[in-house]
Please model this.
Amino acid sequence: MLLRWYRKCIANGGMLVLGVLTVIIRYASFGYGVPFNRRVVTPALSRLFLLLCGIRVRRQGRLAAGPGAACYFFNHNSNLDIFLIPLLGLPNTRAIITEGIKNILPLHLCNLGIDVLYIPDSHKTQERIAFFQRVSADLRAGKYSVICSPEGRHEFKRGIAPMNRGVFHMAMAGECPVQLLYFDIPEESDPLEGVDLRSGTVTVRSLGLVETTTWQLEQLPERIDEIRQCYLAAFRAANPSSQCQES
Model:
């Protein structure tokens, strides 16, 4: 019970410390400290907080997509992702986060510190369209890369959720490759939507780079299904005894 309380304090307190520190660096430097936050501060502190909870993170394969703008996709079914995304320290990469997270102060502070892109909620149709158009234009211009989950906002579960069309359309319109990242979180270490972090080893692996230059709009459902099948195969391989939920 005491250990469980300790890990919850690390998870909640760690994000608050990370948020306060990165916000101070950002605004004290008039914004010039954001790259330093992304490249040094958040990777180092995220790894430290996870280690304090007994969680080690290892990398498998080349995670960075290379020069130029790219879209990084990842499977999103655990609150551990809050630490895993900043821990990666991907070069010149902005995370796309649902705007509902603004209501959670520690997370909002951290997101301000690394200058994330807040995507409008799904019911704000026109605002979402304008958001994707703006980000696609920035990707074409090579201003930055983005990391996001094609599963979008959903209830966490052991499996791979259905995928949203928006980020695929964004990658295609942005004329940039998609780097597929798989977060392999053992079931015994997975808090799902909780903050009860448990010890174990998490592996972040590359599932490969997908070029989008030949994609056609009418073929987009097929491309989405191909990528989802890739994630489902990775989940089944990592969890042979688990019953994967597919919808």
The chain has one domain: 2-238. The domain at 2-238 is CATH 3.40.1130.10 (Glycerol-3-phosphate (1)-acyltransferase). The chain has a mean pLDDT of 91.
